[in-house]
């Protein structure tokens, strides 16, 4: 329960009741925690406008993956999250797919919906230097081209399917390897490496672990395409980072920003199964140089249009001003 596992404190509710009125608007960042319960107890009966940012926590994938926990969450929904969202000035979503999926999560569902976007800061630094630093981390990669997976090594991410799909096309692309970068928090990597060995592609897959800073950006800049075969992904900040570097993204339709990727022509989208992920790789390697260059341009444009955090902050402020706090509107310039 929230007060056991999610930071219960006796001081927060009194503090919020006393201090919320000193703010133009309040944003509740996330649900299924004591902060959300405290907001329910403090804000729903106040005159202070508030919004709730769910950050993918209403995705029905969790209902299928954790049915027992979902029953407990339904009870919590009736008592806490449901009234919190129903009385909010608005519920904020990072993309259209998140908004659509949230409607099937819990009952009853009665909210005012706003898609305000999400994203990351634009990439900085010298790309060539970053690529060199990344390649120093993986000497066995030498100067070979590569597909990049960069995320947690976790069953939800579809890593096993990506390895199987790569094994199917590896004979067709002897000059392209696969880099599987990310922390192995679930201890799954040894099993995946055995899988790669059994498929005869162990020497074509590289496991640098978690990449940060210049090495991470070097991986993005240096890859042929970024691949994220997730079974569930509310947003996928790594997808936005790849787009910032002008790289095509090959993702499943369970990565919630797939609509924007498809709409802008910034990559390829398929189902989160072996035929789907294999089709992503096969379709990409069949592209002509001109087609790949076009996708790279579209990828960069998609980042600037949808996922540049500075643009999305502006969208968020516009929603706050227009729906609840006109006094937040920018002051006219002084003479």
Number of H- or I-type helical stretches: 15
Topology pattern, helix = H, strand = E: HHEHEHHEHEHEHEHEHEHEHEHHH
Going by helix content, strand content and strand pairing, the class is alpha/beta
Strand content: 5-15%
Low-confidence stretches: 331-335
Distance between the termini: 56 Å
Share of helical residues: 40-55%
Task: Give the CA-based shape.
Answer: elongated
Biggest sheet, spatial arrangement of strands: 7-6-5-8-9-10
Radius of gyration from the alpha-carbon trace, in angstroms: 22 Å
CATH superfamily of the largest domain: Glycogen Phosphorylase B
- Please name the CATH topology of the largest domain: Rossmann fold
* Second-tier CATH architecture of the largest domain: 3-Layer(aba) Sandwich
What is the total domain count?
Answer: 2
Q: Count the beta strands.
A: 10
- Arithmetic mean of pLDDT: 93
User: For the report, how would you describe the main beta sheet?
Assistant: 6 strands, parallel
CATH level 1 class label of the largest domain: Alpha Beta
Question: Which features would summarize this protein structure in a list?
Answer:
single chain, 335 residues, alpha/beta, Rossmann fold, 2 domains, six-stranded parallel β-sheet, four-stranded parallel β-sheet, 15 helices, 47% helix, disordered C terminus
